[in-house]
Amino acid sequence: MVKLGKKVLLFEGGKSLNLDKIVTQVGIQGAINVMHELGLRDFSTKITKQTNGEQPVIITNSKWIRAKHSGMYRSSVSAGQKVEKGVKLGSISDPFGDFESSFKNSQEGYILNSNHSPVVNQGDALFHIGFE
């Protein structure tokens, strides 16, 4: 679509290989909000206001954290969680426990997606982290 000069809106949420009704509803509401804000159509009757008093988080940049090693993967954080700089995100070890490599967050952000596979290969996406 981009090659045709069309704009594309992509929502990523939840976790790998799992459909979550709440995450899907949030994604739909977000797409409606963005289309309304861009003036594509009047969605004013479908826009819901946040009632918990919290301001929405605006993600302006993101990056993927990828596995530097293959092995048994353990995550220490969850999708949607705010993570401070230096927080341990997870670890990868060999099946026998002779090798373990932990990795930390390089800057404050929000976990947008996370891999829940117990076995990962070098280069696999582990987390998608968004930044304000």
Model description:
The chain is α+β, with helices and mostly antiparallel strands and 132 residues long. It has a domain of 71 residues: OB fold (Dihydrolipoamide Acetyltransferase, E2P) (Beta Barrel), CATH 2.40.50.100. Strands 1, 2, 4, 7 and 9 form a 5-stranded mixed β-sheet that branches. The longest helix is centred in the N-terminal third of the chain and has 17 residues.
Task: Identify the notable features of this structure and list them briefly.
single chain, 132 residues, alpha+beta, OB fold (Dihydrolipoamide Acetyltransferase, E2P), four-stranded antiparallel β-sheet, 1 helix, 13% helix, elongated
Level-1 CATH class name of the domain at 61-131:
Mainly Beta
Largest sheet: 5 strands, mixed
Helix content: 10-25%
- Radius of gyration, Cα only, in angstroms? 18 Å
What value does the average pLDDT take? 86
Shape: elongated
Report the strand count: 9
What portion of residues belong to β-strands?
A: 25-35%
Order of helices and strands: EHEEEEEEEE
Helix-and-strand structural type: alpha+beta
The unreliable regions are none
CATH superfamily annotation of the domain at 61-131: RNA polymerase II/Efflux pump adaptor protein, barrel-sandwich hybrid domain
Which CATH-level-2 architecture of the domain at 61-131?
Answer: Beta Barrel
Compute the number of helices.
Answer: 1
- Taking the alpha carbons of the first and last residues, their distance comes to 27 Å
Reported by name, the CATH topology of the domain at 61-131 is OB fold (Dihydrolipoamide Acetyltransferase, E2P)
